[in-house]
Design brief:
By secondary structure, the chain is mainly α. The protein is built from 8 helices and 2 strands; from the N terminus they run H-E-E-H-H-H-H-H-H-H. The chain has 2 domains: 1-110, no CATH class; 111-212, no CATH class. Helix 4 packs antiparallel against helix 5 (112-130).
Length: 212
């Protein structure tokens, strides 16, 4: 947990430093949002360059605090590297978004839709591989009535859900080969379908456990 917090703080600090270094050289208006087609569709003042580092800092502090206020916070710690890895991955994602923002502001063409497909694909695959290790808690994991009602259902749901997350990550990678906006729409639909499948699986596991 401590290593994940330190790594996340380092990534956040690097974002603040990068933003500060380029701030005075940025144009008055910088990109602040990309549409699903990967094109910039909103701009804001250059002070917005500090938005990503600020969000990273808040997320890092919030995720560090969560195990301390969760009634089952010890279970989060007992989940091994799953929680710290998620913290680091989120910070890396924001760092990449910051880098793309800076490059785009300086006139470099970056296919944001492709970048997001790759980053989200990695996020889902890595998180999916760690998901079976997540212990029952109130803050982190697949939070359904049936997973909270039975620890056995929690375990089986997270094992199954981990495979679904990995599959969703692979769909994001495949999205790179599709034209915009299908390259993001197809993976997003896959996530929705995956969530429904996980819910149905968890419910059926709960019914099976209760019958037995």
């Amino acid at each position: 947990m401590k290593k994940g917090f330190i790594a996340s703080l380092c990534i956040t600090a690097a974002q603040f430093i990068a933003a500060a270094l380029v701030y005075t050289r940025l144009p008055e208006q910088i990109p602040t949002h990309w549409g699903i087609s990967g094109q910039v569709d909103a701009y804001g003042g250059r002070l917005m360059i500090f938005l990503m580092p600020a969000i990273s800092l808040l997320i890092t502090l919030g995720m560090t605090l969560m195990p301390k206020i969760d009634p089952k916070g010890k279970s989060i710690i007992a989940s091994g590297n799953a929680y710290p890895v998620l913290m680091v991955l989120i910070n890396v994602l924001f760092a990449v978004i910051l880098a793309v923002t800076i490059l785009t502001a300086f006139g470099v063409s970056v296919p944001m839709d492709v970048v997001m497909c790759v980053m989200l694909g990695l996020l889902f695959i890595i998180l999916g591989s760690f998901m079976p290790r997540i212990k029952q808690n109130y803050s982190f994991g697949i939070k359904l009535p049936w997973t909270y009602a039975s620890e056995e259902v929690w375990v089986s749901t997270h094992r199954f859900g981990g495979r679904v997350f990995v599959a969703n990550g692979l769909v994001f990678f495949a999205g790179v080969l599709l034209p915009a906006p299908l390259n993001l729409l197809v993976p997003l639909v896959a996530i929705l379908v995956g969530m429904i499948v996980i819910c149905v699986f968890s419910y059926l596991q709960y019914r099976k456990t209760n019958v037995n």
